[in-house]
Structure formats: structure tokens, C-alpha cells
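Single-chain item
Fold in C-alpha cell form
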Amino acid sequence: MDGEHEDEKPLERVQSASITARVPDAVAAGVFATGAIVLQSPTEVMVDFVQGVANPRRIGVRVVMPPAVATQFAEALRVNLGIYEATFGRQPKEPEPVPPPGSAGTPREASEASTAGPRGEGGGAAAAEADRNEASRSASSAAHPPPIADAYDQLKATDDVLGGAYANTVTISHTGSEFHFDFINRCFPRSIVNARVYMAAPRAPALLESLKRSLRLG
């Protein structure tokens, strides 16, 4: 009898507490994500895990969950981030891009350089005004992000990815450098890992904030 079902034995199984799930070969390698977009409707929450290292940016995997499961996912991620900080300390800040050669440098440096010019020529005042305008535009962009359709215009995705991977259970683990998420469909007669995602540890807090905003969690 065992021989008849030899081909059904999984290459890998996930075991966590009371959860045991098969991991299909197509999912086992996982997807590394640099960010996520969270959308929701009254009946489901959709998380698009984005690969933004190379152009064109792509949706690596789309996960679809019931709102209650997404809320549990957010809470589990919050707890895991707390465990991470207790073990490894506070999350390191990501480095900021270095200004290209010949640029004005940081806004403060640009402002200081502009005010050093001859006042009679108006160079300092004009440059300072330009700095203020740029700061105002940056603040406005942060307060009013572009429409979601604009973001998706810049993303590539295959039809298989856009179809989504359903999950009603999520397991989370982490090391000092990354977080690992298994999105599982727990159903009879066996549970299946439908999506596996890896994310650099400094990006995990941003994922939590996106979930909290979308789900309106305090």
C-alpha cells in the first residue's frame, strides 16, 4: 500500500506546533521580497510581495487571506518582531543613498552653500527658496502617496502570480538577518504551503505597518 502512494510523499514538510503541511517542489525555494503592498476588501486581504532589486520591479507572489487571518498574521508578526528585538536588539536602519558626485549633497549642505553666495546677486535667497519648495513637495508626496494604480503600472506579474495563493494559516520564523513566512491552506485531507516568502529583517517592520494601516489596527 505504501508503494502505491510513494509519489505523494512530499519533498519537505513544515511542522510548527499543531501544524503539519506539505511543501510542493514549486514553492519550496521561496520568493525573496523587498517590500509588500497590502489591499483589502470586506471579504479578503491581498498582500503582494514585491521584488524591487532589479528592473522591472515584479510581484513575486500574491497571497490572499480572510481578514481575520490577516489580523492574526499582523499580531503574530508584531510578537515576532518583539522576540527579534529581545534577541538581536533593535532593527538596524537601512542605509540612505549617497548623493552622486557634483550634487549639492544633503538639503542642509545645499542650504548652507546657497546662503554663502553674494546677497546682491540674489543667489542665496533663490537657492534657499528652491530648497523650501523641494522640501514642501517631498512632504506633500509623503502625506499624499500616488494612486495605487500608478504603483501597479510600474510592476510586472505573470498570470499565475496574479491568480494569488490562498492562505488561512501563516507561520513565521526568523534569523538575525531575515524573516521567513509560510502561507498555508489548512484543509482536508492535508494542509499545503501555497506560498513561501523571505524578507530582510529591516523590512519586516514596514510590512507590519502596512498591515496595520490596511486593517486599521491600533
In short: Residues 1-11, 107-132, 137-142 have pLDDT under 50 and may be disordered. The chain has two domains: 3-90+155-215, 107-143. The CA atoms of residues 17 and 89 lie 26 Å apart. Helices lie at 25-28, 67-88, 107-115, 123-143, 148-153, 159-162, 204-215.
